[in-house]
Amino acid sequence: MFANLSDRLTSTFKGLRGKGRLTEADIDGTIREIRRALLDADVAVPVVRTFTGNIRERALGAEVSGALNPGEQVVKIVNEELISILGGESRPLRHAKTGPTVIMLAGLQGAGKTTLAGKLAHHLKGQGQTPLLVAADLQRPNAVNQLQVVGERAGVPVFAPEPGVTREGERQRGNPVKVAKKAMKEAEQRQHSVVIVDTAGRLGVDAELMKQAADIRKAVEPDEVLFVIDSMIGQDAVATATAFQEGVDFTGVVLTKLDGDTRGGAALSVREVTGRPILFASTGEKLDDFEVFHPDRMAGRILD
Ligand code: GDP
């Protein structure tokens, strides 16, 4: 995770080690290298600009006195700015004041929504909650089964429509908005404390998908709409996140596949570009490969 970016930043900082005083030229050289490392890691251009601008300003004005030498001071500033673009403080999941807490998942197909639904259910169950998983992804033929498998693994019930038969004789699973509404009734009757609604994704952003997600959002009035994004998506992260922000107005972000050979761009861009906090990270295919997102720990890993 972030291996290349980490290496690049570390070697940039090595060049500063042992310098008694940093000149403006030293700082500009360092900023240039940081900028290149971030761009190569697919971090969005406006984010790189803000980030490096802040570092330059702070490094130039940094106090020379104190316990840290100038090189260490630059590392400290970069660390603080990384934490800042990752969101500063971690933001806990919002729970409903009365009735079940409703969490809706949205994102592109293959982002890791269904896998995440199981992990989140498992995590919340571990906190004493009684989640219900809802299969409102009726687009992909296998999605409902996949959620059922995930639910079984997590030991959490899944609300899924019975397959019906259309006039043409095709098997059909019905309307996701209706399924979501029915699931809400079921959750109230059975007193589930949390409802996690998995929705359909497409390979690319499209208007129909967005409308469906927006309709489900209206129907279930979620406490959280979590935009699930594959960290490997690279430069597409910004356009995808922006489209989902306009389409469903998500309240938080989940980064998936952080275990992969991710360059880091999506992770480092999405908070700054959308203004929405990253709540969780998914780091593998197993139920436990899941963590609450802490900006300071993530920055620490990048600068490790
Ligand atoms: P969905 O289409 O958004 O519901 O995505 P899925 O949950 O079906 O995930 C797509 C693929 O990515 C599956 O093969 C998952 O096993 C895999 N996957 C999901 N999350 C992670 C993760 O954090 N790390 C890795 N390595 N694979 C993941």
UniProtKB/TrEMBL annotation:
Limits of the SRP54-type proteins GTP-binding domain: 277-290
Protein's UniProt keywords contain Cell membrane: no
Enzyme category, top tier: hydrolase
Assigned GO CC terms: signal recognition particle
Residue numbers binding GTP: 107-114, 198-202, 256-259
GO molecular function, one term: GTPase activity
Catalyzed reactions per annotation: GTP + H2O = GDP + phosphate + H(+)
Gene Ontology biological process terms, A to Z: SRP-dependent cotranslational protein targeting to membrane
Subcellular location(s) of the protein: Cytoplasm
Entry EC no(s): 3.6.5.4
Keywords from the UniProt entry: Cytoplasm, GTP-binding, Hydrolase, Nucleotide-binding, Ribonucleoprotein, RNA-binding, Signal recognition particle
Keyword Cell membrane included in the entry's annotation: no
Family assignment from sequence similarity: Belongs to the GTP-binding SRP family. SRP54 subfamily.
Function as written in the Swiss-Prot or TrEMBL entry: Involved in targeting and insertion of nascent membrane proteins into the cytoplasmic membrane. Binds to the hydrophobic signal sequence of the ribosome-nascent chain (RNC) as it emerges from the ribosomes. The SRP-RNC complex is then targeted to the cytoplasmic membrane where it interacts with the SRP receptor FtsY.
Quaternary structure, from the entry: Part of the signal recognition particle protein translocation system, which is composed of SRP and FtsY.
Record text about domains: Composed of three domains: the N-terminal N domain, which is responsible for interactions with the ribosome, the central G domain, which binds GTP, and the C-terminal M domain, which binds the RNA and the signal sequence of the RNC.
Protein's name in the database: Signal recognition particle protein
Organism per entry: Demequina activiva
